[in-house]
Model the fold of this input.
Amino acid sequence: MAKKRRRRPAEQYQLPPHIKKARQEVTRAKAWKPQPPLPQLHVILAGFALFLLCAGMALFFLLPPRSLVQDLRSRGVSAAATVVAVDSKPKYVKVRLVSSLKAGTEVKLSEYAGMLPKTENGASLIVTYDPEAPTRVLAQGWVEDPPANLPAYGTSALAVICLGLTTAVIWRRLSILRTFDTEEPPASSAGGEKPSAKSVRNPKFTLRNKK
Done:
């Protein structure tokens, strides 16, 4: 009479290698997450270009007016003047000097960051001009206490915003590249598709069927 085969205890049962591998693939597939959209390089370059543009405009509105005020404070000559022409297209204010060595000279007031004082024809005005270059002239009040340089402040704020957004996009791109190694889901060794729980059969059920 043939001896009955003893069944090995469940705790001694060793899973076949292909089942272990299939289970590992299922676990990896469940943990896999699709990669979020990756910020493109052209977006980063566009943001950096906007930052450079805004920074250049801020320097354009800030440095020339500051240099003009400093020069007029150091060597400027004050004189009484009369407004002889005011226009908005093109924007200018023309004055005639009525005192100092340049009396009778007509000059246009220099713009301060694109701004000119509000005045009208025939109005009297005290100006300060550069004796070496009389065309560099500002209202005396603007030399002593320059108005708020709103264009420079605005473009500086835009430059900071563009730089901040560009930096955030760069960090986002680096974070995605570090966190997500691949854009494709892990494939099973059998069919090249994502393994599912159905592909991993119960080892006890398989063993009984073989018997």
Summary: DSSP finds five helices and five strands in the chain. Confidence is low (pLDDT under 50) at residues 188-211. Residues 144 and 184 are 67 Å apart (CA to CA). The longest helix spans residues 41-75.
